[in-house]
Amino acid sequence: MKYRERCAIYAQLSILHLLPKDSRFNWEFHQEVKMPEPAKKAVSAFTKKPKTTEVAAGSTAVFEAETEKTGIKVKWQRAGTEITDSEKYAIKAEGNKHSLTISNVGKDDEVTYAVIAGTSKVKFELKVKEPEKSEPVAPAEASPAPAASELPAPPVESNQNPEVPPAETQPEEPVDPIGLFVTRPQDGEVTVGGNITFTAKVAGESLLKKPSVKWFKGKWMDLASKVGKHLQLHDNYDRNNKVYTFEMEIIEANMTFAGGYRCEVSTKDKFDSSNFNLIVNEAPVSGEMDIRAAFRRTTEGLEESGELNFSALLKKSSFLRTANRGDGKSDSQPDVDVWEILRKAPPSEYEKIAFQYGITDLRGMLKRLKRIKKEEKKSTAFLKKLDPAYQVDKGQKIKLMVEVANPDADVKWLKNGQEIQVSGSKYIFEAIGNKRILTINHCSLADDAAYECVVAEEKSFTELFVKEPPILITHPLEDQMVMVGERVEFECEVSEEGATVKWEKDGVELTREETFKYRFKKDGKKQYLIINESTKEDSGHYTVKTNGGVSVAELIVQEKKLEVYQSIADLTVKARDQAVFKCEVSDENVKGIWLKNGKEVVPDERIKISHIGRIHKLTIEDVTPGDEADYSFIPQGFAYNLSAKLQFLEVKIDFVPREEPPKIHLDCLGQSPDTIVVVAGNKLRLDVPISGDPTPTVIWQKVNKKGELVHQSNEDSLTPSENSSDLSTDSKLLFESEGRVRVEKHEDHCVFIIEGAEKEDEGVYRVIVKNPVGEDKADITVKVIDVPDPPEAPKISNIGEDYCTVQWQPPTYDGGQPVLGYILERKKKKSYRWMRLNFDLLKELTYEAKRMIEGVVYEMRIYAVNSIGMSRPSPASQPFMPIAPPSEPTHFTVEDVSDTTVALKWRPPERIGAGGLDGYIVEYCKDGSAEWTPALPGLTERTSALIKDLVTGDKLYFRVKAINLAGESGAAIIKEPVTVQEIMQRPKIWLPRHLRQTLVKKVGETINIMIPFQGKPRPKISWMKDGQTLDSKDVGIRNSSTDTILFIRKAELHHSGAYEVTLQIENMTDTVAITIQIIDKPGPPQNIKLADVWGFNVALEWTPPQDDGNAQILGYTVQKADKKTMEWYTVYDHYRRTNCVVSDLIMGNEYFFRVFSENLCGLSETAATTKNPAYIQKTGTTYKPPSYKEHDFSEPPKFTHPLVNRSVIAGYNTTLSCAVRGIPKPKIFWYKNKVDLSGDAKYRMFSKQGVLTLEIRKPTPFDGGFYTCKAVNERGEAEIECRLDVRVPQ
């Protein structure tokens, strides 16, 4: 058996018999304290869930659900797809009741359905059975199975809660008029092994939030940390009756559970508690049971066999009869207590007694007897032992204290059986008289153990339980969006390393499944949830919970979709030229293959395949006729096939006669020459075949919108003057054979090249060929296309609890291609991760974003997409927060009514939400009208309102709404109309209890008396003092409709007297009287005199003071003073008489005496003092002292203790000290490096009894040097010096 278990058993057996019943301790609870707390079932948003239903084909199926709260948005799904209201599906919502009706059910409807509310999701199935063939059957059998909603509710099982009567006959809960309890927990009784539940009910109608409830055993043991196998705590809230119910369930009770318990309930400003007792009875035993069965060993041979509560069994008369087999009258035998016999018997008789009374388990009996004897043995070493257990918060300190009988006794402290050694400041051992104290500092979980205090051979046991502080989430989770199959990693950071957290998905706790779907990881304070391969089913809200916080994030898993940003295009190239096929896809990780006429292309020295980012290229150098074919690119894993054709341009050279006019052969390109499209950033190479003899001159021109031409040519023979006649007057001719835009000339063709096409290169280009025979020209339009410009920042509108509407405008430039759609992203404001909200392009300019978390600030941005690709992101939208209107105000009532006013009050809404509360709007409506009129201008932030200027006699309805950023809440309405008419009420003064006796105040104090009253209409109030009308100049009076206040800023003696307050309404009055007594310090006593002097005694007499300060004189204080020193010493205080005798005076001295008077205010300001001193004469001969020459004691200063060189650390105050003597007392000067320090505030000088000290406040290296102390008097001077070094800490 483990050491700790032995300690627990010993303490259980010994302490339970020695301590009072109420202080007994449930050790089993403490043994379970380290077991992990069972996971609490996730709270569902549904109070009624739809169930799987089987219906016949062609009939109608109805599914019903009820939510805990009204106004919750509920969604219905079919096979993971949201269901909308249609002819097939009818969706209804009334308050908190929701239903889905499926008409004309068929086999296609036999799938899985789900209903979603918030983070709760409930799945159910619809099973469809084929209708039976038409055979003559009974009508009952022919009818189809009823729908789920038509089935009768199953009867409630009787064993669920047999004590609760039906709802209609349930008696009303008793109301506790004193405290918070509606029903207090009652005393209970249970047998060993049985279960019992204690219930406490608290009225929640007047509470703003849920009360805090604690359960205790005895005086101090908090049972919240003992929840486990034998103890469960439950609570719920009845919204109809507005009652909180708290339950403590004890499971499989044993005898140690008996004792006193306490239930404490507290709110913000109230507290209540209730005590109750638990009685645990022994299990019933049959009368014919043989006592030997209780002590018979089990067949398993366990060491603890026979360890039952034998003392209770042995005391039963049916088992305590002597074994007399032949005596038929054994029933009349008297009861015998076997334990009492065993206690008194010597050990040699134990076996005989066991045999006589049929005890076969002698070993078990001896162990039990040994424990009982130990219990009876009184401790001789300890006066006070350790408590059974202690509890401390982690990081705090605790003291374990015992009292020993011998003050000189040595004690040893053990932890789990090992002696505790002194180590730093962790353990502190103290011995104060008979007390021995062990202090444990900075308690950790390692200190949760069993402790012993050992004195000689005796021990005192206890257990220490360390409670962990709440673990906070310092860095929350972030939303994520991934593709199917990708790895997901949620990360959060908590306040403590290695903390235990709980992960949930849609309210259901996550565990390590057999397939290792989820992986949990800890790294210091960081906690990770990893999903290796995500699927569509993994989408949802993921929650991480600690005992001090919650964080929620959303995961969206989308199917993989590949978008083609740029497809490959057909090419026409000439021999030995380069052909490049290029395409761009959305995923840079996607690989693919190139096909030529359906066969895979194998790269070589001439054919190269490249993949850089999202761009895939096939490059063919030195094109030959054999390269002419259909080329395709197929992305791996996707059903895409991007195809293009390579055409080989064969230039045929025919014989032409001389002087052939020039000709541009654009028709041989095989395509329309009107417009050539090039993607921005790509290279444009335009080959234009030409002919002519002699070789024509080529001129390239760009025609601007204004008619201007930009000329580009590579002919050096041309000059601007030769061609200027063919151009407009403001044109400019350029000759460029190199650069980004250039022209290359060959015999049979010319090439126009643009490297890295830009938007400015777009336009109409004209090529002109000339020779002496003639000329030819052609216009070619070049169009440069690009990705669109980024749109402007989107605008957010229609913000709700978890949704909003996003609006945006098209980009100013679409890149030359129509915009195909838009991509929307969002992120939390404090996050850096943007999450894509759609994978299918949005065609519209608005989008409703959903599934956001209320109270979190988000931002949105938008991308525009055309056939070329995706634009840069737009600027982020203005930050916004999804919020919902609050719920309606509660407890809306009428507080008061007069002829023209109505006073209303209410309480804040139960749910305010993240949007806060801006205020309330109050409206009223006349009875019979439907028009509501604002009762107050604008909003009010108070929870009460006084509506004025109403018409007397009107019947009005009132309502109030809560307002925040999201809008108005529902209205709280007064059900019955309120008649604007004041009700007569008799005047009544409610005099506070402290004013029913004399009110005593001191002079100068403030008097503020508030007296509440009632009465309608507003009563007339009058104050009287001693029968006279009260002077309003001397006393301030303020009256309201509910109270009157008497205010005196500074009380004087003349304010004392009897005050009367009178209320009058017509002929009805009410009057109360108040007595005020103003007191002041008394005057001094009068006529003090020395009545007699004899020996060492003086008799004094005086009379009471003339002014008693309006209060009774409580006594006198008598003081004496020696004439030499005139220092006063108190002889008597609180002395009641007006005469006294002062004794023990010193012979030869003269004394003065004075007397103070005293009342409630204190001592009098002055005292009565004797005019003449009292001389205490000496007895015997008179001594005449001899005359001596006065000795000169003066001497020059001399240092008796020198200054010592010092080395100190910078930043810490330091002192320099020395000692000096000299008569008269020398004057002291301090110097640093010969500079006087008298006026420097950094230094402080002290001198006490010749010890001189210089304090240097927080020295720096600059303060180092030589310090000198100089002492000077009229006889001479002395100096002493030391060196001070100031070091900087490393």
Task: Report on this structure.
The protein is mainly beta and 1290 residues long. The chain has nine helices and 97 strands. The strands form 22 sheets. Strands 47-55-54-49-50-51 form a six-stranded mixed β-sheet, with no helix packed on it. Strand 58 (821-828) and strand 59 (835-836) form a beta hairpin. Helix 1 (3-18) packs across helix 8. The longest helix has 16 residues, at 3-18.
Query: Total strand count, please?
Result: 97
Helix content: under 10%
What amount of the residues lies in strands?
35-45%
User: How far apart are the first and last residues' alpha carbons, in Å?
Assistant: 55 Å
Shape label: extended
In short:
The chain has 1290 residues and is mainly beta. The chain contains nine helices and 97 strands. It has a six-stranded mixed beta sheet with strand order 47-55-54-49-50-51, with no helix packed on it. Strands 64, 65, 67, 68, 69 and 70 form a six-stranded antiparallel beta sheet that branches. Strands 82, 83, 85, 86, 87 and 88 form a six-stranded antiparallel beta sheet that branches.
Name its key features.
9 helices; six-stranded mixed beta sheet; 44% strand; Ig_sub; phosphoprotein; six-stranded antiparallel beta sheet; 1290 residues; cell adhesion; single chain; mainly beta
